[in-house]
Amino acid sequence: MALFRSSELARVVILASWFLSFLFITPITIYTELNEKDNSTNECRIQWPMQWNFVNLTEVSKFFNTYLTPLHAFTIYTFILNYLIPVSTIVILYSGILRRLHRKSKIKKSKSKTKSNRKITRMVLTIIVCYIICWSPYWFYQ
């Protein structure tokens, strides 16, 4: 168990998180442009290309421009990164917590421990449900 709580593992996880964050934000930084609205204000906007332009692959470009435009690809990309992966992670990790609580509750315990475990279970389920309820409408309308 000490292996999972080592400072080396913590450093690796932190570095991996930063690396993935930079990797995932790359498409946005590539296509963001600064537009001057007037003399005093500037506005950053993402300017996605209207169609794909694969060099020397005109048939592939035609296929993707017909069925998956760059804007649709970005919407799917952000849906997976900003909703699907977090929801899956939350459900998997909190399910592990609930399973562990359920296993420990089978061992004879005091009423106060059982009551505490029920409160934790309700709290965990509330977090999962609230996250899904709050973000689902946004992603369904994308």
What does this structure look like?
The protein is mainly α and 142 residues long. It has a single domain (20-140), classed as Rhopdopsin 7-helix transmembrane proteins. It has helices at 7-31, 58-67, 70-106, 111-140, and strands at residues 32-36, 42-46. A hairpin with a 5-residue loop joins strand 1 and strand 2. The mean pLDDT is 79.
Give the arrangement of secondary structure elements:
Elements: H1 7-31, E1 32-36, E2 42-46, H2 58-67, H3 70-106, H4 111-140
Antiparallel strand pairs: 1-2
Helix pairs in contact: 3-4
Uncertain stretches of 5 or more adjacent residues: none
CATH superfamily: Rhodopsin 7-helix transmembrane proteins
Q: Numbering strands along the chain, what is their spatial order in the largest sheet?
A: 1-2
**Rg result:** 23 Å
Which class of secondary structure composition applies to the elements?
mainly alpha
**Biggest pleated-sheet summary:** 2 strands, antiparallel
Overall mean confidence score, pLDDT: 79
Instruction: Specify the CATH class.
Output: Mainly Alpha
